[in-house]
Amino acid sequence: MTRQLTVTIITDTVCPWCYVGKKRFERAVTSFKLRPGFEDVEFKLTYQPFQLNPAQSKEGEDKIKMYERKFGKTRYEQMMGHLKQVGVAEGIQFSSGGMIGNSLDSHRLVKFAGLLADQKQDAVINRLYRAYFEEEKNIADSQVLVSIAESAGLDGAKVREMLAGDHLLKETQDAVDQVHASGVSGVPFFIVGDKFAVSGAQDPAAFEAVFERALGAV
């Protein structure tokens, strides 16, 4: 009999450590399902939106200039150097160029995909990460979002119509507000089995230990 383990992933699509955390989570899932006694476990993923900077304009600004203003040039260069090293180990080629804009519409796309099928939502989030962090694309741009949606198997025309109007806008904003109100102050944040939390981009072993606890294996 198959056992299902629910995991809610709270993330911002412009958060680099969320991308790292997702990669490590995926490695943990693969490793965990290879362990004797856990081959039958199925993971059901859902996503909740978080915004690191909800005041960011939709038009966006130069990513490097924004981070240098926020952290200072020297500290930013140190942070980016470390992030790129971490990324290589996870199969991520972090690139710091491009624009950063408000992430709300990208979260709206993730929510839209979740209404279709779980695997579509997961595919969309992975493509958003890759587009923003590796391909220097502005994921606040509706045309970019339509292209990402199509690459994940969604109907581009329906996505374009959704983004052009207010569909799911209130629901997405409400979800952001609820996450912030719940006390989550940083991302990534993983809720496993509705009761166990993993905060940050932890190593796969940390995830696996929580998977066991959630399944009542210890």
TrEMBL record:
Coiled coil: none annotated. Residues 6-209 form the DSBA-like thioredoxin domain. Pfam families: DSBA. GO terms for molecular function: oxidoreductase activity. This is DSBA-like thioredoxin domain-containing protein. It comes from Chytriomyces confervae.
